[in-house]
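Exercise 7b. Backbone tokens:
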């Protein structure tokens, strides 16, 4: 099974520096690459990521 890095509805991204969070409310539909979010001049990382 392919583990896409693209965010789907419900994913949360968190800034590890200031704690700000972004909630994804719609699946990412981009055909290539993946979106990334930045805060505090750093890339935000998925919050509460579970390894499935
Ligand atoms: Zn921040």
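Sequence design result:
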């Amino acid at each position: 099974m392919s583990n896409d890095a693209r965010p789907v509805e419900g994913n949360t991204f968190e800034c590890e520096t200031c704690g700000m969070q972004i909630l994804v409310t719609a699946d990412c539909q981009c055909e290539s690459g993946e979106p990334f979010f930045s805060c505090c001049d750093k890339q935000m990382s998925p919050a509460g990521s579970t390894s499935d």
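Instructor comment: DSSP finds no helices and five strands in the chain. Residues 15, 17-18, 20, 39-40 surround zinc ion (CB under 6 Å).
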